[in-house]
Backbone:
């Protein structure tokens, strides 16, 4: 492929593009330096486009590698060497990345992993859309760790939320999962990219310049109110060590129960004290709603149409769309459940409804469709009407 050199980094302007394109432009606007992935539909456009685009704006590396296991581990290494890194995949590839993501959570490695969701299990429906990876995004790797996952419903949000994903990842020293269903990744609609000066880009904390490099401790959070340790990089002269084992403040392995409790507890508290960084949900007419539809991604767009139709018929319905799906918005769900009946609409057999019912503490109505197509607004509206008749 011939790469045109010295392209504009931020393509300010209005375009008619798809979500996969917008994700790459958001990542480049965020300052990514390296990208590693294995091609897999419906995320292949991301892999193809970034290998053209990133070298032309001064990126260090944009590689199509041998498999998903290699790609996630290359991302970890590049991040520890000081780069902002991105990887992108879909269902089977996301499964293969789970061990590496577990390592990234334990070592507190900033990176963004895009998952353009498709039907499964196994090879499933390679070119079709789905929303069946929500549970895997939190529980795909073993052990206890707090995941961060964002999900868009438009091409514009694919750009905007990618930037937020990188900012959160850098601020919290954590992987961030970007979950977009195949419809949002591939559909085309208008997108506006602002001027570079209007885009807020945040980089990870690094040790103060006067730090004694031989005495630096990679996981020391003394004086860090956000519980996020500054990150030194390999090659910068610091005495640092990274391991997936339970480790001390200097990064060295130590298999000790009390230390493990302290470390894992801090990882959870780190997200709790910084929850203000996570994108707020989108809501429509939920203040007086007696029935609330909860949905994400492309399904939320069908849900919004159903809610508007219900309002036209005098039914007090509303829409709640979580944008941050992990950590799950449990407080919001508890409040909604106290005053309204809940319908969960999704493109899976019931992955989103599981945490909803857990925190709602009551049974909810599930409207589902699998096979590559989201539930139609009429199907959601019919469920709203049935609840009204009860």
Residues:
């Amino acid at each position: 492929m011939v790469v045109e050199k010295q392209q504009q980094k931020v393509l300010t302007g209005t375009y008619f593009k798809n979500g996969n394109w917008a994700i790459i432009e958001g990542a480049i606007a965020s300052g990514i330096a390296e990208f590693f992935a294995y091609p897999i539909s419906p995320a292949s456009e991301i892999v193809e486009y970034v290998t053209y685009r990133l070298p032309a704006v001064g990126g260090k590396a944009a590689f199509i590698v041998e498999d998903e296991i290699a790609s996630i581990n290359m991302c970890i290494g590049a991040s520890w060497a000081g780069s902002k890194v991105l990887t992108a995949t879909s269902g089977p590839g996301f499964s293969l990345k789970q061990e590496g993501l577990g390592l990234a959570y334990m070592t507190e490695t900033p990176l963004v992993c895009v998952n353009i969701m498709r039907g499964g299990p196994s090879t499933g429906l390679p070119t079709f859309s789905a929303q069946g990876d929500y549970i895997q995004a939190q529980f795909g790797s073993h052990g206890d760790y707090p995941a961060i996952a964002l999900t868009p419903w438009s091409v514009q949000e694919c750009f905007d939320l990618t930037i937020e994903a990188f900012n959160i990842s850098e601020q919290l020293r954590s992987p961030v999962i970007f979950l977009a269903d195949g419809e949002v990744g591939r559909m085309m609609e208008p997108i506006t990219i602002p001027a570079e000066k209007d885009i807020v880009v945040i980089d990870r904390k690094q040790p103060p310049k006067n730090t004694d490099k031989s005495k630096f401790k990679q996981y020391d959070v003394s004086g860090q109110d956000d519980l996020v340790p500054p990150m030194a990089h390999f090659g910068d002269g610091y005495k640092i060590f990274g391991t997936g084992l339970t480790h001390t403040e200097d990064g060295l392995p130590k298999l000790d129960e009390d230390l493990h409790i302290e470390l894992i507890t801090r990882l959870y508290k780190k997200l709790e004290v910084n929850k203000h960084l996570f994108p707020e949900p989108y809501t429509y007419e939920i203040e007086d709603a007696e029935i609330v539809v909860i949905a994400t991604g492309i399904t939320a767009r069908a849900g919004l149409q159903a809610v508007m139709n219900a309002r036209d018929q005098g039914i007090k319905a509303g829409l709640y769309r979580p944008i941050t799906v992990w950590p799950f918005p449990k407080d919001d769900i508890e409040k909604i459940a106290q005053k309204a009946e809940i319908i969960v609409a999704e493109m899976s057999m019931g992955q989103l409804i599981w945490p909803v019912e857990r925190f709602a503490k009551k049974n909810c109505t599930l409207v589902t469709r699998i096979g590559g197509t989201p539930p139609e607004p009429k199907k959601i509206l019919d469920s709203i009407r049935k609840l009204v008749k009860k």
Notes: The chain has a mean pLDDT of 96. The chain has 13 helices and 14 strands. The chain has two domains: 13-198, 282-389.
